[in-house]
Design brief:
five-stranded mixed beta sheet, globular, Neuraminidase, mainly beta, 403 residues
Length: 403
Amino acid sequence: MKLRHLFYFLILFISCGRSKQTTVSDADKYSPEIIIEDSLEYYSIKDNRITVDLNKPQQASLFDYFDHIELIPLETNDDVLIGFLRKIIFHQNRYYTLDTFRGKYTVFVFDESGKFLFRIGKFGQGPGEYHVFLDDMLINRFTGNIDLLSAWGHIFTYELSGKHVKTSPQFTRHSADAYDFHAAHYFTAINEKTYIFYSVFDIYKIIYYDIDEMKIIRQEFEGNRNGFMIPSFYEYRGKEYYYRSCHNEVYELYPDSFETSYTWDFGKFNYDINMFDLESSGDITKQRDELYRIPYRFRLEGQNNMYIMAEIRLKNDVPANLMYNKSTNECKFVEHFNGSLKFRPNIITNDYVLSYCNHGELSNFVNEEVLDESNRQKFEKLLETKEELNPIIIKYKFKLSKQ
């Protein structure tokens, strides 16, 4: 990975001599750096810093970015009922969904149209079954398998067809040693044998772990044990990124290290999380009230060649969006899109953004005005259905002129 990083740096250095496209803003002229690798064009982030003014919410339409919105209802039947959709992955024209409702941990697989195909494993004590709760899942790009994570230290690995491959030995440790690794709640794979775990309640939040040798490689980000500050990982151009809900830096991860990739700059609204009492002597209500005093928190984030998009939560847990255009170095702060629509960027690619919502909240994310005739009919039928259905996937197709 270090060699690849050096290779990318050399290309960036060489590309400095290329001609640059010019975009005129109100303040001055900004010339974005256009980088070409493997016939793909993408933009760099100016000074690796994104400036946002939370005093100036801006108007925006979903059609400023997308030219088509598609609704994909996930099939509902007596055997396929999703209570709480914790995570969704789209891979090789299939949707992999992790349901964690009331201890019924299940991975359902649907085709591209939303038709149910099969489930992967099941909760139980038998061979190939996950006998503990699941907290996260990923399609491991180094093995081609799907990995399911238990907070208590097991990875259950299956082929994409659902065939059980292996179950790891327990890798968490429980002792009085402050450097021990007690729980893993989110994870990503950085190479064939190294996982990076995030622990909500451990003192060190990030743990690099060699799954072959069953040992901790390094631990980073010492902080409080508050469980409300949920972070995430995302992948872009074959690299892994990590962001934290109450911090402004986004990190690029390597097999044995990490570095800051870019920083969000909110000016006078920047804050140090240690200013807020999120421990509150274990009182969950007081912790939540304190959390809602924070000016902003990151909930979802990702990027493609043109944009960085994030859903944030303002004071009192009010949702809003940040839409950064790399080609113009401009970031819109959007409290809601025209029509009072919410936007939740769960998965971002160069072609589309994937989101999802529960059946009962569909009208908060789309309305008839943003849909073509085919999807308008789906929308009306979904609204007319009285019984609760499985979540609906919303696919936002980028404008071709933007990509």
